[in-house]
Design brief:
- This protein has 145 residues and is mainly α.
- It has one domain.
- It has five helices and two strands, in the order H-H-H-H-H-E-E.
- Strands 1-2 form a two-stranded antiparallel sheet.
- Strand 1 and strand 2 form a beta hairpin.
């Protein structure tokens, strides 16, 4: 059963990375004007699990991210005001209340890397993640994480 769970987690991660790679490829081959790009970043009705991570922009609300990504950001955002340092993927996994199996840790690491690649997080050379200098993006009604 554990082997099947690990294989399923690997396939979910592979699918997310494939969707992201295909999306990036499509973006590179299509010339998008600045006005069109701003329209595309308008808040969508509701993110769905497995959706791609949009690039972070000034004023971007956390709610544009899928719930799993919002939870990862929430864990790291809670540490910043307390003056605590960055976290490793395993520590984030523990903070999220997940089992620390290699499949779960790799899933969290993959999501955190994706957030870092799109500017939502900072990944340090040691493999640790933090919110860095990114200002906390909030929609007009306050924090939604």
């Amino acid at each position: 059963m554990e082997a099947a769970e690990i294989e399923l987690d690997r396939r979910v991660i592979a699918r997310e990375e494939l969707v992201e790679a295909l999306t990036a490829s499509a973006v590179e081959t299509t010339a998008v004007t600045e006005a069109e790009a701003e329209q595309e970043t308008a808040p969508s009705p509701a993110p769905v699990p497995g959706s791609i991570v949009p690039p972070w922009r000034e004023g971007s609300p956390v709610t544009v991210l899928a719930p799993d990504y919002q939870r990862i950001l929430g864990v790291l955002d809670e540490r910043q005001p307390a003056g605590q340092g960055p976290l490793k993927a395993k520590e984030i996994t523990v903070e999220l209340g997940l089992e620390t199996t290699s499949a779960k840790v790799e899933g969290v690491r993959s999501k955190a890397r994706r957030l870092a690649e799109h500017g939502w997080l900072v990944q340090e050379t040691s493999g640790m993640f933090s919110v860095g200098q990114r200002p906390v993006a909030a929609s007009g009604a306050g924090s939604s994480a």
